[in-house]
Design brief:
The structure holds two protein chains of two kinds. By secondary structure, chain A is an alpha+beta fold. Chain A has eight helices and seven strands; from the N terminus they run H-H-H-H-H-H-E-E-H-E-E-E-H-E-E. Chain A has a five-stranded antiparallel β-sheet with strand order 2-1-5-4-3, with helices on both faces. Chain A has a two-stranded antiparallel ribbon with strand order 6-7. In chain A, helix 3 runs antiparallel to helix 5 and helix 3 runs parallel beside helix 8. The longest helix of chain A is centred in the N-terminal third of the chain and has 82 residues. The N and C termini of chain A lie far apart (about 165 Å). Chain B has one domain. Chain B is elongated. Classes of the chains: A alpha+beta, B mainly alpha. At the A-B interface, helix 3 and helix 5 of A face helix 1, helix 2 and helix 3 of B.
């Protein structure tokens, strides 16, 4: 069959008949039409030189619009991101500020609480002092027997209210008017920490810190005993033991005629005492007044000490 | 409210002695001397403040 078809084609082509001619024209026509279509499409830009289809302009336009939209969205998102970053930064800063405020608040509260703590403790010391003074007044016999011990205890309550005991080494002494030496005061009582020599010291009414408080009937705070502008008995030569001395007159209220003595407290460093501590010393001086007054008025204190 | 628990005189003297000797610190002296006296309101306020701060955090 195949051989028969091939023989027929051979016969038609070789013989140069009308069919052969028809084929030639047909092929030439197809080639010309193809060339024209190619050229037209190329001219229209629908294909490239290698007959590859070029994308549709509309589609390109849509894609370009999409791209532009996407770029705008990206830009917008980036802008939003930047704004959010900025807000986050601000919020973080605000939080840091708040944390700082809370820390400061806590610090102030701790400070306040420590002071409150100190005040309630001081109140307890005042209560015990008042209690022991009341007991001494109520039981005079016992008071006269144990006076030294009672006063040491009472003055130790005052010392207990002073902050920084180890650094300040506070020591208290009470002087009263000397019955014989009109220009001097004499020892009456002292807290623990003093040597027995404290009994021998008789401060001048004019020329010592205690004397100044006695004379003026006001508190006298010497922040540095080495400062020569203060009235202070430098012959005592005890500056190596203390640099500060506070002298408070023992008096009833503000009436100078009621003064009976001077309570002095020393402190090792320069300017040892805070305002609140000075106030406490003044308070204790008032607390001790009735007992000292009662004792002096009973006439049991002599220039040789207590009987 | 009942009478607060006062520290007996003998014990107070002993505490004073221990403090002078340096056996106890001022904080310990304060705590043992006061024995809770006059301190209720401070502790209640402190508790309230701590709760307030923990709510802020």
């Amino acid at each position: 069959m195949f051989e028969y078809i091939m023989k027929l084609i051979e016969k038609l082509v070789i013989d140069g008949g009308w069919l052969s001619e028809l084929f030639r024209y047909l092929i030439a026509g197809v080639l010309v039409a193809t060339c024209m279509i190619y050229l037209i499409r190329l001219w229209q830009g629908k294909i490239d030189i290698l007959w590859r289809k070029v994308e549709d302009q509309g589609q390109v336009h849509i894609l370009q619009v999409d791209k532009s939209n996407l770029e705008q969205q990206v830009e917008k998102l980036q802008q939003e991101k930047m704004e959010l970053d900025q807000k986050l930064k601000e919020v973080r800063l605000e939080m840091m500020e708040k944390d700082k405020t809370i820390q400061e608040l806590q610090k102030i509260f701790v400070e306040l609480d420590e002071k409150y703590d100190d005040e309630t403790y001081t109140t307890s010391q005042i209560m015990y002092t008042a209690e022991e003074i009341a007991a001494a007044l109520a039981n005079e016999e016992n008071f006269h027997l144990k006076r030294d011990d009672i006063f040491t205890n009472l003055l130790d309550y005052l010392v207990n209210t002073i902050k920084g005991y180890r650094e300040k080494n506070p020591r208290v002494v009470i002087h009263i008017e000397h019955p014989e030496k009109k220009d001097r005061l004499m020892h009456y009582a002292h807290s623990s920490g003093h040597s027995h020599r404290i009994r021998e010291y008789e401060p001048l009414k004019d020329g010592s810190a205690a004397g100044r408080a006695w004379r003026t009937c006001t508190n006298y705070y010497v922040s540095d005993v080495e400062d020569k502008t203060y009235e202070y008995d430098r012959k005592v030569a005890s500056s190596k033991y203390y640099r500060t001395i506070l002298c408070v007159p023992l008096k009833a209220g503000n009436d100078p005629s009621t003064r009976i003595g001077v309570l002095s407290i020393t402190g090792q460093p320069e300017n040892a005492y805070e305002k609140i501590e000075i106030d406490r010393v003044v308070l204790f001086a008032s607390l001790l007044y009735p007992l000292v007054y009662m004792d002096i008025k009973k006439g049991e204190v002599s220039i040789h000490g207590r009987t | 409210m009942g009478e607060p628990e006062k520290v007996p005189r003998k014990e107070r003297k002993e505490l004073n002695k221990l403090y002078r000797e340096g056996t106890i610190t001022r904080k310990q002296l304060m705590y043992r001397m006061r024995n809770g006296l006059f301190d209720h309101e401070r502790l209640a306020t402190k508790e309230k403040f701590n709760q307030f701060v923990s709510r802020l955090k």
